[in-house]
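Hi there,

I know you've been waiting on this one. I reran it after we fixed the sequence typo, so this is the corrected version. Both the input and the resulting structure follow.
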Amino acid sequence: MNEDLKIITKDLGSIFLVVGIMTFFVIIVPLFFGEYEALGPILLTAGIFFLLGGSLYKLDKNAEETDFKCAMIAAALAWLFVSLISSIPFLFMSEYGINEGMEPVDAVFESFSGWSGTGLSMIINVEGISHTLQFWRSIIQWIGGVGVIILTLAILARPGTGSFTLYKAEGREERTHPSVISTVRSIWWIFLIYTFFGIILLCITGMPLWEAINHCMTSLSTGGFSVINDSMTSYGVWTQLVLILLMIFGAIAFVTHHDLLKGKLKKFISDPQVKALFLLLFVGTVLLSLINYFTLNYPDFFQALQESIFQFVSAITCTGAYSTNVSSWSNSAKLILSTAMVVGGAAGSTAGGIKLFRAILLSKGVLWRTKQAIYTKRIFSHKLGGRFLSSEEYKDEVNEAAVISFLWLVFLFFGVISLSVLMPHAETMDIVFDVCSAQGNVGLSTGVTGPTMPFAAKIVLIFNMWIGRLEIIPIIVLLRSLIGKD
C-alpha cells in the first residue's frame, strides 16, 4: 500500500474512534428522557465509527509520521466522512417518529451544518423533534466548533511532529504551551469551563435548563443551532446579553483566552484580533442600527440598537442565532451582515469566515504598500501585534492572507452564481446573504435555504460549508491528489 495512504488511513482511524466514543456517550440523553427508540440510530452511528476507526487504525498503525500534505488530506476526508456518517440519526429520527426521518440530502445537509458550525437547517419544527436529536445537533456543533482533530489529539495523544502537523492542517497554529498536546488539552479545559459557567448564567436569566445546555453549547461554539423554533427571539434582554457574551467569547482565539484566565488582562486587551473584533462590533452595530432605525420605522432607537447588536454579533462571530427576522431588512443592512459573515472571528477560535487576522494583514498590507509608493526613499518597519516583521516575513504573511482570501471569494462567487441559476426566482441579495452564511459557517438566512430548495442547491451549500470550515487549502490538496497531481 502507498505510504501516504497508510498515513492518511491511520489518522482517519484515530479520528473515527474518538468521534465514536463521543457518539456513544450521547445515549445518556435517550435513556434519561425515555426515548428508547432513539437508541438504535445513535448506537448504529457509534458502531460504524468504531468499526471503521478500529479497522483503519489497526490496518496501518505502524505507518510513518504524518507530513503536512497527508495531514491536510486526512483533515478534508475526516470532516467529509464524519459529517456523512453523522447524518444517520437525522435519517431515522424526526418529528414524525422512527423510520420516517429526513430525506438523505437533508440529513447530510443538517450534519454538515452541525459539524461545520454553520447552523443553517433543513428542520422546520425543531421543537417537535426528540430531545435526543436536539442534543445530537448541539453536541456535533459543540465539538465541531473546536474541531474533531483537536478532540482526537486531546484524547489520543501521540508524540512527535505529527500532532502539530494535524493541528496545523485544521487551520490552527498558535499554542498556549510549547507542546501541542498540552495546548489542545488547555483548549478543551477552557471550552469546558466557559460552557459550565455559560449554562449557569443562562439559567440565572430565566432560561430553562435544557434550553440553557443546548444554547450555551451552540453559542459558545459559534454554531447557532437552537431547540426553539424562533431561535433567540422570545428571550429577554438579559438572556440575549449572556448569549452575546458567549458568542463573542467563542470568536476570540483560545490562546488569548488563556492569557485572560491567567490574569494577563493587558495582554488580552492588546491582542490585535481582540481590538479589531471590538472595533468592528462598535462600527458595525452603530451603522446597522442607524440603517434599521430609518428603514424599518422602529418606535425608538433603543429597539433598533437591541436587535441590530444581536444580529451583528451573531454575524461577525459566525454564530447564526437570530433575535428577529432579517429577511425583512433592507439590502444595505443585509450587505453589512454579509460583509461581517465574510470577515468572521479570530483565527484560533471557533468562528468561521476569512478570519480577523487575515483582514488585519490585508489592511496593513494596503497601508504599507501605499506608504512605500508615496515615500519611495524611506524604509518602513512592519509591526504586527507588538512584534516586528522582516521584509520576507511581511511578504509571506500578506501573500498567504491574500491567496486564502482570494480563493475564499472565488468559491463564494461560484456559490452565488450556482444558486442564482438553480433558484432564478430568489432575490440576488438574499442568495448572496445565504451563500456568505454557508461558506462563513454562520447560519443566518433570508429564507433562501430550506427543505424546499432544489437538490443541487443543497449540494452547493454543503460544499460551501465544507470548504469554509477547512479554509479551502486542504480541499484543494485533496482534489489534486484524487486526480493524480502532486
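Quick highlight: The radius of gyration is 22 Å.

Best,
R. S.
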